[in-house]
Design a protein that fits this description.
Elements (H helix, E strand, L loop, with lengths): L2 H12 L24 H11 L20 H10 L11 H17 L9 E5 L2 H22 L8 E5 L4 H9 L3 E5 L21 E7 L11 H15 L5 E4 L7 H4 L12 E7 L11 E5 L11 E5 L2 E5 L9 H37 L4 E3 L8 E6 L9 H9 L7 E3 L8 E6 L6 H19 L17
Parallel strand pairs: 2-3, 2-4, 4-5, 5-6
Antiparallel strand pairs: 1-7, 6-7, 8-9, 10-11, 11-13, 12-13
Helix pairs in contact: 3-9, 4-9, 9-11, 10-11
């Protein structure tokens, strides 16, 4: 930089910030500017633009963590430059990753940690992809061994499955067989499962915390249905448990519920560290009950402390900081601390669901007694003036993001609204939210005529 340029930069720095180049003009949205700007000016522009986003703490649509304590933030700042895939450069971070998935294996009752295997991922979607790939590869290898074709694999799951499973089937040429949820069967509970599985079924997905409603699918019942199918047909079909949310709730709030590796048919479990694992995004985990269920053909080996470390994530370079944050929380909270955090969230969910059920317009779909998530709908025939989409929009004016959306397939004519209670939604804030729901419902009830109905825009993206 020349002397004159340096002088001009110094003079610009003393200008009022909103009069500086960059703040005083509209920047291009399609190409880089020729000149640089002061870091304080660039920061202010980005900071101000993101003020248009919603308040993350008031976003009750997302399962993803929006609060961590000051020590976690310090640790994040200390380690965000670490690349998880670079195990030679950051061997202790690699060792901590292994410590974390072994802790999860123990939490999920893996029968023998010396033969268990797992890894971290960017999120539970990648973890689900790896679980699905292992199911497909094992099915292919068994079919080839028996001299049978491998060109028509299918995966059986609920119609309320998270979209990552539909992506898996699309990306890896697997036929998705969706068992519809109904008023009678609100989750995949093993009912009529024999109509969906056959010799080409690579596995069944059970969800611990359905995204639409928060309900647990009864993994034990699904396993028992598959046991009966095996007795009748000889088909031995594995289960992958999508524990994106419930995998970090059930061990603490429902410790006697059998959904994990206590069920022999459960070969793998995935979860989100950045949901009820309480870490900032993005972090997921997947664990197999035994190495035999993760085909060797999916594993690559990298040099690590003079030896080989297995790696099988889909992503390559990715953050290591979130793994360290997970370890921090495992140390900081322990089982007692995780129980206290999840119980506090469940208490808030039950407080809110009880309060909403007592309001005239609504009836609950579930109450948040599984994971701290619940949904409700308008009572049949309650009003023709407004819908839950209108309530969603009214709550947004108060800063709350509470999504309304239709249920899948056979229940597509049922619209529900859902609240996800996370660490950071206090009982005090919940009381304010409940009052706002009551006030906005009363406002809508008081309208003289129906709200003009445009094309409804759901805020729900699972």
């Amino acid at each position: 930089m020349s002397t004159n340029e340096s002088l001009n930069e110094s003079l610009n720095a003393s200008d009022p910030i909103f009069a500086r180049r960059g703040e005083g003009t509209v920047s291009s949205r399609t190409s880089l500017e020729e000149d640089s700007m002061l870091p304080a000016t660039a920061y202010q522009i980005v900071h101000d633009e993101t003020m248009l986003d919603g308040n993350a703490r008031l976003n009750l649509a997302t399962f993803v963590g929006t609060w961590m304590d000051d020590h976690a933030i310090r640790l994040y700042n200390d380690s965000f430059q670490k690349n998880m895939i670079d195990k030679d450069e950051y061997p202790q971070t690699a060792a901590i990753e292994q410590t974390c998935w072994k802790m999860l294996g123990d939490l999920w009752h893996a029968p023998d940690l010396s033969t268990t295997i797992g890894c971290s991922t960017i999120g539970s979607s990648e973890a689900c992809m790896l679980g699905g790939l292992a199911l497909k590869r094992r099915w292919q290898e068994a079919r080839r061994k028996d001299g049978k074709p491998t060109d028509r694999p299918n995966l059986v799951m609920s119609s309320a499955v998270q979209v990552c499973w539909e992506k898996f089937c699309n990306y890896w040429d697997v036929e998705p067989r969706l068992v519809p949820i109904t008023e009678e069967h609100k989750t995949l509970d093993g009912h009529d499962l024999d109509k969906y599985v056959d010799e080409n079924t690579i596995g069944v997905v059970s969800i611990m915390g359905v995204t639409y409603t928060g309900m647990y699918e009864p993994v034990r019942q699904v396993a028992e249905a598959l046991d009966r199918i095996q007795e009748q047909t000889g088909l031995d079909i594995a289960i992958h448990v999508d524990g994106a949310s419930g995998g970090m709730v059930a061990p603490f709030l429902q410790p006697d519920l059998e959904w994990d590796f206590r069920i022999e048919r459960v070969h793998s479990i995935s979860t989100s560290g950045h949901k009820y694992g309480l870490v900032y995004p993005g972090l997921g985990w997947v664990v197999w009950r035994d190495k035999q269920y993760l085909p060797e053909s999916l594993i690559f080996y990298v040099s690590y402390l003079g030896g080989d470390m297995p790696t099988f994530a889909l992503n390559f370079s990715r953050p290591g900081a979130q793994v360290l944050l997970q370890y921090y929380l495992f140390l900081r909270l322990g089982r007692k601390g995780y129980f206290e955090v999840q119980k506090a969230s469940q208490d808030v969910a039950l407080f809110l669901s009880k309060g909403i059920a007592e309001l005239g317009p609504f009836e609950l779909w579930n109450d948040g007694s599984d994971i701290p998530v619940f949904a409700w709908r308008l009572k049949d025939g309650y009003t023709d003036k407004w819908t839950l989409y209108n309530l969603q929009d009214r709550l947004r004016t108060r800063g709350w993001l509470v999504p309304a959306y239709p249920l899948p397939d056979d229940l597509a004519d049922v619209t529900v609204q859902r609240i996800v209670v996370r660490n950071g939604l206090s009982m005090d804030l919940a009381a304010l939210l409940l009052n706002d729901i009551k006030t906005q419902a009363q406002y809508l009830d008081g309208l003289e005529g129906p709200v003009p109905q445009e094309a409804q825009q759901s805020a729900f993206h699972h």
